[in-house]
Amino acid sequence: AGQGSGVDYKSTKLSCTKFSGGTESLCFNMAEARAAVNNIRVGSLLQLDAISSRAKFRGPQVHTLDGGLLIVIPSADSLLHLLLHKFKHLYYHFQTACWPVPVWSALAGITVFVGGVMYSPDHSWWRSGPIASFLWSVDENFVGLFGVASYLPKYFRICYLSGWSAVFSMLVVALVQRFCMRILLNYKNWMYEKKPSYLTLVWGAILRGFFLGQREPLTYSFQNAMPRLAVPALQCTINKYLRSVQPLLSEKEYENVEREAHAFQKSTEARKLQTLLIVKSFLSGNYVSDWWEKYIYLRSRSPILINSNYYGLGYANMIPSHHQTHRAAVLVHLYARFKVILDTERLKPMTIRGTVPICMRQYERMFCLCRIPGRDDDILRHSDSLHIAVLYKGTFWRVEVFDHQRSPLSIHEIQNQLDFIVESVGNVIPVPDVKDAEANLPALTALNRTRWAEIREEHFGSGLNKLSLDEIEHAMFFLHLDDRSPRTWSETARLSLHGEGNTRWCDKSFNLVVYHNGEAAVHAEHSWADAPVIAHGWEWVLYQEYALKPYQPDGYLKASEDIEPLADHCSKTPKANLRRESHEKRKIHPAKLEWRFWPEARDAILEAAQLAAEQCRDLHLVVDSCEVSQGGYGKGFMKKHKCSPDAWIQVALQIAYYRDRGSLALTYEAAAVRLFNEGRTETIRSVSVESKNAVMQILSEGVPKKDKIAALYKAAEQHQKYSRDASLGRGVDRHLFALYVAAKGLGMEVNFLKDALSMPWKLSTSQIPQRQTEFITTDPNMVSPSGGFGPVADDGYGVSYMMADDDRTFFHVSSKRSCKVTDSERFMREIMRALEDLRSIFED
Q1: Contacts from 541-544 at CB under 8 Å and sequence distance 24+?
Q2: How far is the C-alpha of 553 from the C-alpha of 485, rounded, in Å?
Q3: Integer Rg of the chain from CA
Q4: Taking every pair of C-alpha atoms in the chain, what is the biggest distance, in angstroms?
């Protein structure tokens, strides 16, 4: 089958020795350099072998290649490993179904039950009672349809009937247990209590004692017990909406909006749409999350590089190793371990206060996910793979991360592969050519989604380009060995978000970026999950790196025998594959991905690179911090004065925006709704009547400090109420959005919903949690400035913030340079000024 491809793989092989020996003679110009790199072939891992490797983990593969048909059938040994892997996944699902009963206990119970029925007399209740008679009739009517029952031995039939009965009974008990837990989890009064009531204390004791306090749960043990997200009452949503826009509108504008809102509330259309949502809430996992993913993300046709994707930075004040490939190998290895933990469901499910579990569904798609562009809407394709895609100086590689037994390769095995890439390419291509199509290939993912889909269908739909693209889209994640060395938080943030437009594969679930100086960051696609999920994985990797201490004082990796395995803070974690055979003995090599671009494809890629570069130049992104060591303060000061830190920051942002623009604006703050099944986010509408009053009083010179403090506390109290309502799915925007989608589906035009959802979010904010793992350290360097995103509105700001500890708060501010009324540096100064103003009202 391979002969029909028209590619002579054997004749294109070039040994590593010959390539490295002739490096100087090959470096005449960029065209010759690209030709030299394209001739790299390593061992037996050619493009064909990469396909064969993929078949080992996914079964038989069929591809079209240059007019030929390529069929790859894995060996019997590989098929056996594949079947074992499938069996393991079924076992993990069975574990989850049995929880909190251990699998061995469940199997022992089934065995005892079957044995008891087998050895009981024929006239016993077990053999001839009402239930037994019913099972016999079922067996006769269903198995007997095939004429089999009469030929089966009696005791064999008793055995399988009692076995199925035992399994069914066990599942019924598990369902009842989940149902009882779901009823308990529907209790939400604890969210609004400053001091737990007796009812809440009893509820918590029951939840911990009978459910959470039992055997160590698996990652998804609580998923079937997560309560459904109820549809809020329409009147409550309308009232909250009106209250949120009142401080932003003139009296006449508010009267018009109020009249439209009440007219919609009383209409037959509203009742019909509300009923439809209620029915959907019972028939689907979540009444809004699937529509939110489809219509907000996947159906959007705008470029996602800056408009949707986001980034997360590494350590704030240190770089553990300045050797790029050494640090990249450690991070890749740790991400491989994290994937194993997720695959085996050994990541401890997250809870609030150790009592209330939250939905973990988003973690299922963290690895091996790619957003596939479509002409009308995109799709999310989730697969299973054991390699990563690597970009280095405009060349693309497939790098193995697991062995054939699905165990993570050692750090040194990964490092040797990355070293080979750097040594092979680095001397040939000192700087990627800006006019080279392959070097600018990722820019296609930053295009308008419809345009990218058209190019993908036309130039990547078959042949060699499709095979190489598949390697990237099926990879665990995308690694970029960036040859730049950012020096500041702001510079690192800008490069991590957009990479100048031609180095981030925007469609992958996440990109790991390791810079030349060892700095590291992540770049994530937004449709599949929200920022806390990526932040959790990144935090886990950074803490493991810190605890592993894999580097020598000079930054080079320690020898394998000097790197000690670590506990992963989750039960029964597979042992890390830190000590393995040498790289040479195992012959693990990277495979270079090949491309064939005709002039039309080259022009499309270079045009995409130019458009992406324009987007990047338009972004104005600044990162700074307010910390005690620099004369500032953190949440410790806020808590000292008994004020919610998040409410304090939100009031400060409104003060800063008012000074910057002379008015308040509709402000978005994301709230997680993961207390419910498949929950994602809801909007906290931070501007309120109380917050507007606080801003006006704090900015007024003649107002006494005690009045300013009282106004701040009232604003904080109202903000906390908004936050709790949003976290419980009782906000405004998701309900109105779902009503709007339902109306569109029924062919209705509802002006109120259209107008309500079209108001621009000129100030979009988000707080990122600092600690989601159980690791504890007192090292002040073990802190990250978190991450950020681009502005939602062309004339607005995007602000993310993270309260690292009691003494430090980091801010990321973004805006567009093309807008004449916004300036990120100016707004950052206004934030710091507003924070100082809030501190001053509490000081004598």
Answers
A1: 541/331, 541/334, 541/335, 541/338, 542/314, 542/315, 542/782, 542/784, 543/773, 543/775, 543/777, 543/782, 544/334, 544/337, 544/568
A2: 20
A3: 30
A4: 97
- pLDDT value at residue 11: 32
Whats the size of the chain, residue-wise?
844
Q: Cβ contacts of residue 537 below 8 Å, gap of 6+? A: 335, 338, 366
Plot region of 459 (φ>0 → left; ψ -120 to 50 → alpha; else → beta): alpha
Amino acid of residue 408: P
For 469-518, list the strands marked E by DSSP: 478-481, 510-514
In 3-state terms the chain splits into helix, strand, coil percentages (rounded to 5) of: 50, 10, 35
Using the predicted structure, report yes or no on whether residue 403 has a pLDDT greater than 60: yes
CA–CA dist 638, 625 (Å, integer): 16
pLDDT-above-70 percentage for the chain: 85
Residue 536 designated active-site: no
- Tell me 508's DSSP state: B
What pLDDT does 104 receive? Answer: 67
Instruction: Identify the pLDDT of residue 579.
Output: 46
Mean pLDDT taken over the chain:
86
Tokens at 670, concatenated: 């994301």
Give the separation between CA 623 and CA 314, rounded to whole angstroms: 13
**Is the distance from CB of 545 to CB of 329 less than 8 angstroms?**
no
Give the model's pLDDT for residue 771.
81
Element (H, E) at 600: helix 599-618
Non-local CB neighbours of 319 within 8 Å, separated by 6+ positions: 327, 517, 518, 519
Given 459, 474, 523, 526, the catalytic residue: 526
CB 714 within 8 Å of CB 691: no
3-state helix/strand/coil string of 300-322: CCCCCCCCCCEEEECCCCCCCCC
Contact in structure between 484 and 515 (CB atoms under 8 Å): yes
Read out DSSP for 668-704? EEEEE-TTSTT--EEEEE---HHHHHHHHHHH-SSS-
Enclosing H/E stretch for 551: none
Give the integer Cα–Cα distance in Å for 735 and 550: 49
* CA 818 remoteness from chain centre: 30
**Closest CA relative to residue 486, chosen from 324, 308, 610:** 324
Pairs from 746-753 (Cβ < 8 Å, separation ≥ 24) = 746/272, 746/273, 746/276, 748/269, 748/273, 750/264, 750/269, 751/260, 752/260, 752/261, 752/263, 752/264, 753/264
Q: Are 444 and 452 in contact, with CB atoms under 8 Å apart?
A: yes
The distance from CA 164 to its chain's CA centroid, rounded to whole angstroms, is 39
The CA distance from 579 to 98, in Å, is 35
Distance of alpha carbon 676 from alpha carbon 618, whole angstroms:
39
pLDDT tens-place string over residues 26-84: 333 555 555 555 554 433 344 555 555 555 555 666 666 556 666 777 667 667 767 77
Q: How far is CA 113 from the centre of its chain?
A: 44
Task: Tell me the one-letter amino acid at 119.
Answer: Y
For residue range 606-650, what is the model confidence (pLDDT) as tens digits? 999 999 999 999 999 999 999 998 999 999 999 999 999 999 999
CB-count burial class (<10 Å; 0-12, 13-18, 19+) for 189? exposed
Query: How distant is the alpha carbon of residue 251 from its chain centre?
Result: 42
pLDDT at 51: 57
Task: Write down the pLDDT at residue 717.
Answer: 96
Give dist(CA 56, CA 402) in Å, integer. 12
| Six token digits for residue 684 | 């906290």
Residue 797 phi, psi (nearest 5)? -120, 145
Interatomic CA distance for residues 816 and 808, integer angstroms = 27
